[in-house]
Amino acid sequence: MSKIEYVDIQTKKMYRAKELAEYLGVGLSTIWLYAKQKKITAYKISDKVTVFNIDEVEIALFRKVA
């Protein structure tokens, strides 16, 4: 019997661009456009890896306007 790794989506804080696009239901190019427009913050953690903090993204994109 193999061990199955389980990641609770509720506890994951940092998402790669592709994961974030799937989570938000938008295209990958939209994620990069939002980052370029400074709507969301991208964190470059190495030459080939950029991540996004899901809490910050949700606040930036879904905050209520009074």
UniProtKB/TrEMBL annotation:
Protein name per the record: Helix-turn-helix domain-containing protein
Superkingdom per UniProt: Bacteria
Residue ranges of every copy of the Helix-turn-helix domain listed in the record: 14-55
Organism: Arcobacter acticola
